[in-house]
Write a structure and sequence with these properties.
This protein has two helices and no strands. With 66 residues, the protein is an all-alpha fold. Helices cover 85% and strands 0% of the residues.
Length: 66
Amino acid sequence: MSIIYMLLGISVVVALIFFVAFIVSVKKGQYDDTYTPSVRMLFDDELVKNPDASSLDEQKKTNHTN
C-alpha cells in the first residue's frame, strides 16, 4: 500500500513540474503567434529560391570572366 502513496506523490510532483513549465513558456510568449508560422511555411521556398538564383547567376558571371 505504501508504494501507491509513493507513486501518487511522484505523479503529482511530475504534473506540477509540467504545469510550471507550461506557465513559464506562456509567460515568455511561446504561444503568442500561431498563425504566422503556418503561413510562412508556405512561402519559405520562394524566399530561399530568389537569393540562391541571384547568387548562382553571380557565380556564373564570375566563372565566365575568368
